[in-house]
Structures are given as C-alpha cells and as structure tokens.
Give the backbone structure.
Amino acid sequence: MNEKKNSVTQGSLPKAIVAFALPLAATGILQQLFNAADVAVVGRFTGDKGEACMAAVGANTPIIGLIVNSFVAISMGSNVVIANAVGRRSEKDANKAAHTSISFALIAGVVLLILAQLLAEPVFRSQSLPDEVYPMALLYFRLYVGGLPVILLYNFEAAIFRSTGDTRTPLIALVISGVLNVLLNISLVVGLGRTVDGVAIATVLSNAVSCVILGIMLIKGRTHIKLDIRQLKIDKAVLKKILAIGVPAGLQSMVFSAANIIIQAAVNSLGTVVMAASSAAFNLEIFAYQVFNSFSQATTTFVGQNFGAGKIKRCKQSMFVSLIEGAVALGIAVALILGFGRNILSIFNDNPEVIEVGYQRLILIFSAYFFSMTYEIVSGYLRGFGISVIPAIITMVCVCGVRISWIYLVFPLERTFNRIMMVYPISLATTAVAMVIAALILHPGAKHERTQMSS
C-alpha cells in the first residue's frame, strides 16, 4: 500500500474530505432515488389507486429502513477495521477483513430474508394501515426483502471501497443501476400496468446490478483490496473486531428505526392523504440527510485511517473540517429543496392537500437538521477511534426515548400532523448536545496523544 497516493492520511484535508464526501452524498441520493422513483411512478401512473399506492410504499419506509440500515450501520465496523489496516499499511489485515465482511453479508442477507418473510404479516397488521393500503404494503415488502442478500452485499462492498478512500466506484455502480431502476419502473408500471409489485421488482433487480458491478471491481483488484472468491470465509478474530464496532451502531440504527415505525403508525392513524404527503416529503428530506451523512462517513474513514497511521492531530482536524463543510453543503441542499419543494412534491402527487401537508413536514424536519448533522459527525469521529457503544447509547436514549415518549404521552393530547412532527427538532437537539458533551469528556484524541508521548 503506497501512502504517497493516500490523500486520507496526508495533504489538504478540506480538499480530500469534500472529494470523498460529495461522491458519497451522490451515492446516497441515488440509493434514495430508488424509493423516490417507486413513490413517484405509483403516485402518478396507477390512476385512482395513486394515493393508496404511495401510502403503501411509504408505510414500508421505516420497516425496510430498520432492516437495511441496521446492517448498513454494522458495515461501519468493516469500514473502521479496514481503514485502520490501510492506515497501518497492512495489506494482509485489510484483505482478511474484506473477505470476512463479504462472507458475513452473504450469510446475514439470507437469514434476514427468511425472518422478514415470516414476520411480514404480524408487523404490517400492527401498523394501523387503511384497508386499501394493507395488501399492497405487504406485497411490496415481500418482494423487496427478496432482494436483501444483494442489498446487504452491495452495502458491505461499498464499505470496503469507502474504507480505502474510494467513493467514486460505488457512485458509478449506482448511476448505472439507478438508470436501470427508472427504466424498469416505467416499463413495469406504465407499460405493463403493474402497481407496487412492479416498482419493488425494479428496485431489487437494480440493486442486484450494482452489487455485481462492485463485486467484479473487487475481484479485479481495482482498489487496495483484491477479492478472491476461493478465500471467502469468516475469520473469527476479525469478525469480533468488526462486530464490536458495528453491532452497537446497528443496534442504534435498529432502535432509531423502531422509534420511527412508532411515529409512522401515528401518521397512519391520520389517514391516506397524510400518509401520502409524509411519504413524498420523506423522499425529499432524505436527500439533505444524505448530504451531511456523507461527511459523517468521511469523518469515520479519515479518523480510522489516520488513527491507524498514528496521526492523531489529523483525526481531530478531520472532524472540524467535516463539520464546517457539512454545514455549508447542508445549507445549500435545504435552501434548494425548500425553494422548489412544492413543485417537486407535485411530481409525486398533484393533490393540493398532499403537497401542502408534505411541505409542512419539510419545514419542521429541516429546522432540526443542523442538530442532526452535528451529532452524526461527532459520533462518526468517535467510531473512527473504535468508540461505538457510547454514541449508540446516547442515540437510543435521547432520540428514541424522546420520540417514543412523545408519541405515547404528547401526541394523544392533540392528534395533528404538526404535533407529531415537532418531536424531530426536540429529539435531535437533545441528542446533539449530549453527543458533543460525550466527545468532550472522552476526548479520544488527547488520550492517544498522551500515549504516544509516553512511549
């Protein structure tokens, strides 16, 4: 591994971080476009079933998010372990971690597919779905989770590329599969008259294509790591390191998503129009989330590699640069989305009530996004040092605890959409303050600097 070619551990941090984060943001946005395309196509091209179809896909968002995002969070463990090995210039350790990660993703994908199919009906029965939405929501879910093995595999493959500082290759793979997803959506829904089943099939096939592309790139050795299918196996010691970082992050994401499922159930109780509006708005707000989340992932990778290389001062600088650049990028994204928000919402559904309720959600959610960016980047900084349990506990207590309490104690006092949405700024501000305090107390950079000086 040639450190001279590694912009993560040397050179201009502002330039390197933005070059890392922007392709990553574009990748996340493209992933979200899979779901946005599903919602837009079924909302516009299924006739009088449009609102019900939108609601069905929207009802799946927090549940699918719970499953997929939990394992995407676990892949952060792979990111940190591989990044640390790259920083130490240990090709052997990096390859061992990569092969373990791919093997784990394959096994986990199959197990999750089976469990999701078994639990599908009881989960959706608990969601207070209108009668016209329930069967379509269940159908979409069953088809979507059929693709879990390739969806998880893609995310672990992408984590391997990110850990080496390469965010462009996953972006290229998603550009190809994203175009395919749109073409398949139009063909199956508009051309063949399918509804939610058509968009679910399109999404799964598109994810399979991106998974195969990254797999081929890894096999050909297009990064620091070369994948050899014959060497695919789980190294117990390496998996333990990956899970020590990834499982707390996965549990954090799981509880986070569980809280959002409870919020979604409250939204569902307000009717199909509110469900459709919330679903459409979510598909816009998540674009802004992907922007600042890319700087959080950049922080984890840069801290992980520089920690491995013993460059502790650069670890701290990485966090501060990410906070500044992330704030600028988020401000631009929010301004653009709010500026064109109503027009974009009308693409999903032209019902004026759907558009107005959706725009209200955007305003309330974006009022809290700078808090969200702060806690994501600071927690990414801690994870880069291998500290994963404390950020997970803070998120579970502050985000999830506040949201669940709000829905059960405050929402019943005034059952309105705005009352539900107020929980987002309150919970995210609380979490940001707690995460910053934790980072100041733990101060991992200072701890490791003292260790270096004493040795």
Summary: The chain has a mean pLDDT of 86. The longest helix spans residues 50-87. The chain has one domain: 7-447.
